[in-house]
Amino acid sequence: MEHDIRPWGEYFVLEDAPTHKVKRIIVKPGGRLSYQYHHHRVEVWTIIQGEAIITLDGVDEVYKKGQVAQIPLGAKHRIQNQTDEDVVFIEVQLGTYFGEDDIVRIEDDYNRN
C-alpha cells in the first residue's frame, strides 16, 4: 500500500485503477492542504472522523463525520483541520489521470509549487 507523509498529515492509497483512485487521508490538528485544482479529475471526499473546514471556490463550509463534499473538475478546493483531533476522510478520484503532478497549487502554507 502506497503511503506518503506530508507537512499537513499523511495519506494511504487504498486502490489505484485506470478509472479511479481511492485514498485515506489524515489531516493533523492545525494542518491544511494547499488551495488547489485539477485538470484531469473530480474528487469526492467523505469525512469519516473529526470536523473539517472545506473551501470550495472560495466558500468555507464545516463538514462533519458522514458528510460528503463533491469537488468538480477545475474547482478550487482545500480542506483544513482547526480542531485538536485528527480529521480523516476518504477521497475518491474519478477521471483520466491521477498523478500527483495534476495538482495546481494556488496557495500553500508549506511553500510548495
What report would you give on this structure?
The protein is mainly beta and 113 residues long. The protein has a single domain, classed as Jelly Rolls (Sandwich). The chain has no helices and eleven strands. The radius of gyration is 13 Å and the shape is globular. The mean pLDDT is 97.
List the helices and strands and how they pair.
Blueprint: E1 3-6, E2 9-16, E3 20-27, E4 35-37, E5 41-49, E6 51-56, E7 59-64, E8 68-71, E9 77-80, E10 87-95, E11 104-107
Antiparallel strand pairs: 1-2, 2-3, 3-10, 4-11, 5-8, 5-10, 6-7, 6-9
Radius of gyration: 13 Å
Query: What distance lies between the first and last C-alpha atoms, to the nearest angstrom?
Result: 26 Å
CATH topology label: Jelly Rolls
What's the CATH first level?
Answer: Mainly Beta
Report strand %: over 45%
H-E string: EEEEEEEEEEE
Q: How is the biggest beta sheet arranged? A: 6 strands, antiparallel
Strand element count: 11
Q: What value does the average pLDDT take?
A: 97
The domain tally reads 1
Query: What shape does the CA trace take?
Result: globular
Estimated helix fraction: under 10%
Summarize the model shown.
The chain is mainly β and 113 residues long.
Main attributes?
113 residues, mainly beta, 6-stranded antiparallel β-sheet, 3-stranded antiparallel β-sheet
